[in-house]
Specification:
- This protein has 126 residues and is mainly beta.
- Helices cover 0% and strands 45% of the residues.
- It is built from no helices and 11 strands.
- The strands form 2 sheets. Strands 2, 4, 5, 6, 9, 10 and 11 form a 7-stranded mixed β-sheet that branches. A 4-stranded antiparallel β-sheet has the order 1-3-8-7, with no helix packed on it.
- Strand 7 and strand 8 form a beta hairpin.
- It is globular.
- The protein starts with a strand and ends with a strand.
Amino acid sequence: HVQLVESGGGLGQPGGSLTLSCTASGPTFSSSAVGWFRQAPGKAREFVASISWNGESTYYADSLNYRVFITRDNAKNLVSLRMEDLRPEDTAIYYCAARSSGEYYWSDHEADFVSWGQGTQVTVSS
C-alpha cells in the first residue's frame, strides 16, 4: 500500500480558507482513488470528499458541497483539499486515504480505503 502524509492544517479564521495536501509515496498511487475524511472531537470520523484515479470524477459530502474542492496531481503524487468559508464546525483532524491499486473510482465508505495518513489538525476559530 502507499504511504500518505497530510500537511497544511493549522488555525483558520471563520470565513477564511485552507488548503490541505496529501503526499503519497509508492508507484501505485496514480491508479488509486483517494478520499479525505475528518474526525471532530467526540465524533465519529466522517467522509469529506473523494476523487477518482485520474481526477476526472469527484464526490463530496452533501453538508460540505460548494465549500470544499478536491484535486490531484499524479505527476507529483499529490492530492489537495481546498476548504473555503471555514466554520468552527470544520474543526477536526483531517485524514487522507487511498484505495487499493486498481480501485479507480471514488468512494465515500471508509472500509473501501486501505491506506491512511496520520492526519492533520484543522482548527477554525477567531
